[in-house]
Structures are given as structure tokens and as C-alpha cells.
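Bumping my old thread because nobody answered last time. Still need a sequence for this structure:
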């Protein structure tokens, strides 16, 4: 089943972090994302600070539905970094790749 069609595990503390080989298998399924500082990361260049806030409002809606939330950073007023990492598990999990895939699949997050 496609990752974007799957649901995040609602109990991330019971999920083990993915092994390096599994991360390397999954990374090909989420174009535009990379591993940086042990997190699944993507940079988005938007048109304005307000655009970043609108983007984050939509991401908040998705995150609440799935019960999984990213780290975010806005810099230079219009650049946004989204980083997925499952703190309860101490690493990158399938949930992180599911969220990245959902973002890639959604028109709203294509910039």
C-alpha cells in the first residue's frame, strides 16, 4: 500500500526506530526529503512569511488528524524547514515517512 494512504501508529512509543537500511529503502519513496541530523527533512521556499504561516496551518490540520507533529523552522522570512522525527521512539520511524508521503501527495504542500 502507498505510504500516503496509510495512517500513523497512534502509539509511537511502541514503535522501534527504523534501521539504516530501512531508512535508505524508504527515502526513495519520498522525493525531495533527505536525512539530516538524524531527522527526515525538507526545505520549502515560499513567497512570504504569511505563506509560511498558511502552509503551517494546513500542516497543523494534517498533523492533528494523524497525531504526529513535526519540528518546524522559518528563516529568512519565507523559507521553511520541516523535520520529521519520532521523539517517543528516539529516531525516525515509519510514521515520519507516512507524514512526508502525505505532504508529497497533497497539492497544498507543493510549492
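Sorry it took so long. Here it is:
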Amino acid at each position: 500500500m502507498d505510504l500516503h494512504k496509510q495512517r500513523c501508529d497512534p502509539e509511537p512509543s511502541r514503535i522501534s526506530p527504523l534501521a539504516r537500511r530501512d531508512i535508505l529503502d524508504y527515502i526513495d519513496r519520498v522525493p525531495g526529503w533527505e536525512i539530516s541530523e538524524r531527522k527526515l527533512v525538507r526545505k520549502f521556499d515560499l513567497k512570504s512569511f504569511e505563506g509560511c504561516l498558511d502552509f503551517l496551518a494546513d500542516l497543523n490540520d494534517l498533523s492533528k488528524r494523524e497525531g504526529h507533529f513535526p519540528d518546524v523552522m522559518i528563516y529568512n522570512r519565507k523559507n521553511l524547514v520541516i523535520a520529521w522525527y519520532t521523539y517517543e521512539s528516539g529516531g525516525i520511524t515509519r510514521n515520519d515517512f507516512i507524514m512526508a508521503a502525505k505532504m508529497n501527495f497533497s497539492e497544498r504542500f507543493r510549492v
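The chain has a mean pLDDT of 97. Let me know if any region looks off to you.
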